[in-house]
Amino acid sequence: MEKFLDNLPPMDLMRSEKMTLVQLIIPVESAHRAISYLGELGLIQFRDLNAEKSPFQRTFVNQVKRCGEMSRKLRFFKDQISKAGLLSSVHPVVEPDVELEELETQLAEHEHELIEMNSNSEKLRQTYNELLEFRMVLQKAGGFLVSSNNHAVAEERELSENVYSNDNYVETASLLEQVSEMRPTDQSGLRFISGIICTSKAVRFERMLFRATRGNMLFNQAPAGEEIMDPVSSEMVDKTVFVVFFSGEQARTKILKICEAFGANCYPVPEDISKQRQITREVLSRLSELETTLDAGIRHRNKALTSIGYHLTQWMSMVRREKAVYDTLNMLNFDVTKKCLVGEGWCPVFAKAQVQEALQRATFDSNSQVGIIFHVMDAVESPPTYFRTNRFTNAYQEIVDAYGVARYQEANPAVYTVITFPFLFAVMFGDWGHGICLLLGALVLIARESRLSTQKLGSFMEMLFGGRYVLLLMSLFSIYCGLIYNEFFSVPFHIFGASAYKCRDPSCRDANTIGLIKYSDPYPFGVDPSWRGSRSELPFLNSLKMKMSILLGVAQMNLGIILSYFNARFFSSSLDIRYQFVPQMIFLNSLFGYLSLLIIIKWCTGSQADLYHVMIYMFLSPTDELGENELFWGQRPLQIVLLLLALVAVPWMLFPKPFILKKLHSERFQGRTYGILGTSEFDLDVEPDSARQHHEEFNFSEVFVHQMIHSIEFVLGAVSNTASYLRLWALSLAHSELSTVFYEKVLLLAWGYDNIVVRLIGLAVFAFATAFILLMMETLSAFLHALRLHWVEFQNKFYHGDGYKFKPFSFALITEDDD
């Protein structure tokens, strides 16, 4: 058996890639090119040898700052292109690589030019807006002035008294009363200020003017009729033209200060109509000239931004890569001569030749007289975990890694999760109608894979797209389980032939009371459609699904324990095999393996034995006769033997291992044996980037308590985990019953009315319930329960999950967020 297992070919993904710690001694003149080539290769994870230094104390801090400044300029260009409504080129112009210094000069020139153009454009826009406002004030205020000279003041006084009267206000006569008492030709004391203000501030502005002048003013306003662009925010703003009539220099000063505080722009308007017309003509002429100048400036700016946009993607990529290179160089140390950089990192064993070839190219391309030294080092810390996945297996590996990254070279659950996860989901979701809907969704995502992979998706859509192959297998297994359950949107079909049951008479009156009679061989595949609607439908399906859940659960837990054997064998830990794997297999299968055997025998023989009674009295009265619950000859003595084995397995797990570890430890440090023990308990927990330390003191109580916790956890977990798999039965039943309720109480009920509107409403409600409740909420529910069964019930039998991921220095992994 040992030779057979040794001769088996290695399984992909079963173990993480073998890693080695390497040291690089790189001459300064070829350091930048060497790190760049390694970044393109993406197969080495550098260790930070300057962890005690702050970012500002490192060697290449100035280069990192320069790259950061260039990133800022590029982000500025991107914002300007976006604000201008232009699109950066999707297919950028490929130009020969430029030096960092040359690119830095180009970016500085472009930024200076763009800032100058923006400043000039803003000044021109401000002047244009002022002239536009002036034109509006001339148009609206001119009408106010004509009105004030030709209309009677009595109406204004009446308005003023109605709006602003105050019984407690006792002073001299108001301004309007003085104006009304004056002769029309003697109005030298009345003055006015005209201007324009944002419509949102007009009411508050008027109220403030009234309070400041104590009512001695007349405020006229009219909407400007056009929106004006704010040069700062580039937003269109509604404005209102106003004219304030007042008397006295003190009132004028107050009004001007209030205008300034509210951001109102004041413009002088002559009373003479001929002068107003002359100024209006001049303003219109200047507006026409400014429009031409602004359009020319915008065209010139857009042309400059378009030329930048052609190269923007390439420049951003180049700057990101350069910054990543210098960040990596900051992780390297200078040797004592200051002529070489020394770096350390993890590298997969299969990639050593590729790394050496990249380093040789770097030496040759940089014309260095000294080659780069590459040699393997001995490591005392645990290496990172690296699985080579493809787009199909990546999603399943992410599901496992969400629980915890595998310890270096321990068995990877993702190998089995590829099949078991979608299958357990389908056991809970089984309906081949719903499965076809999920399949169509998965096929759409896969068909549009090349296009969606290049787009920026929302969080939900990104998660859905990342799990497209998980969704594909989930839908295929759902169709398979739906065919076994014989459910298509809860409706059974005679797909594989006629039913094995028929009515007792042609009228079928007793079908739902007395039942049907069997007249042929069992239905060839899945559940017989005649069970649907029968009086024993629920008891039959409950019994079937509950027993099936136990069988699947015991099988998966046994797989987990078997994987713990392969882990122990791989790490040469004979203690774990003898004192963990063997007693765990005995305990689990003595109880729940035996229960699974009884279920299969009962199915095969058609016995009426009560399995609840058998399992309960196996513990309470193991020596009693089974009577009618006996399924096979020799069952009672077998039960006694299995019960004794289960009782023996508990101390077998608990006691021997701590005492043997203590004995081996004492022998090791007395010099009688050498080497490090490869047991999981004796190996210390290894943190990333920390050296393994070997304690010479053996804490027996700690090891014993640790083993006792493991033993109790397994014994109790064997019961609770088996019960936990009953969620397969519960969710399958819930999904089936929900489908039945929506079909019978919504669709069939609506179809019973001879009204097209009621039928359409029923169809719409059924479609909505199917899409949002059965296809979305039930899918999410079954997904989370399948996730729990894998993380807790399956992986806790063998999976430590305390490793850390291999994160190589790779340009392909750099994103825009790293700017």
TrEMBL record:
Name by which UniProt lists this protein? V-type proton ATPase subunit a
Q: What does this protein do?
A: Essential component of the vacuolar proton pump (V-ATPase), a multimeric enzyme that catalyzes the translocation of protons across the membranes. Required for assembly and activity of the V-ATPase.
Which InterPro entries has this protein been placed in?
V-ATPase_116kDa_su (IPR002490), V-type_ATPase_116kDa_su_euka (IPR026028)
Which Gene Ontology terms of cellular component type are present? Answer: vacuolar proton-transporting V-type ATPase, V0 domain
- Main localization of the protein described in the UniProt heading: membrane
Lineage of producing organism: Eukaryota, Viridiplantae, Streptophyta, Embryophyta, Tracheophyta
Sequence intervals crossing the membrane: 423-446, 467-485, 548-566, 586-603, 638-655, 756-777
Cellular compartment(s): Membrane
Membrane topology for this entry? Multi-pass membrane protein
Asked if Transmembrane is a keyword of the record, the answer is yes
Q: Which family does it belong to?
A: Belongs to the V-ATPase 116 kDa subunit family.
